[in-house]
Amino acid sequence: MNPPLIDIGVNLTSKQFREDLPQVIARALAAGVSHMIVTGLTAQLSQAALELARTRPKVLCSTAGVHPHNARGFDRQTQAELRNLACAPEVVALGECGLDYDRDFSPRPEQRTAFELQLELAAELGKPVFLHERSAHEDFYRILKNAREKLTGGVVHCFTGGEAELEAYLELGLCIGITGFVCDERRGTHLQALVARIPADRLMVETDAPFLLPRDLRGASGRRNEPCYLPHVAASVARYAGRSEADVRRDTTATASRLFDLQARFGAA
Question: Exposure string (b/e) for 241-265, b if CB count within 10 Å is 16 or more?
């Protein structure tokens, strides 16, 4: 029997799951995904993620944060709202936070302010960070490096960068989250060559559902991704890393359990 998996990033508060969320969770559990971390993208959605986690305390936990797309207007009041949420035991990390210069949905100075204040809060509360970076490596790395010694740890979620970025994040002692992007024959081939370079105790897997449905997945209905497809991501990572699927499952679960302190909550090893 394969070891269970932990999906470290799933957007279960998305309206795409509004009609069948219980079935989505049931399918994930049946597929061997024993625990899921619900991502917070704004203060309001972080509250929704926390409330959802409380409905399934043996299966779900959550993060509290503001995504860079939503960073416009982030201030000390927003930070205080996140502090109140992040003090809940169900909240295991600050984020999703970081920088996204690819789409610039929020002005870059406001993205940087939001990122810095969330890192400050994570250091204050002693919780890890769930990180987002896209087309912003230089500023992201600089801000993160300045804060790193005060942080308990973190994971660069949905990593899609190149060798230099990977080495920089590993040098900072961060973990790396891999999604179904690694299955994309158009854009993910460089990542397929890099996964073997991620140490076993720094690697995690995630779906980022409902986004990033693996392109090589057969039998999926529609384009919505689900946490039940996480075993496919883990199997792909194992193949490209030259490791057994069982080892990848065991090690990624242990790494997630350690970073997010899930042992006491779920008994995950």
Answer: bebebeebbbbbbbbbbbbbbbeeb
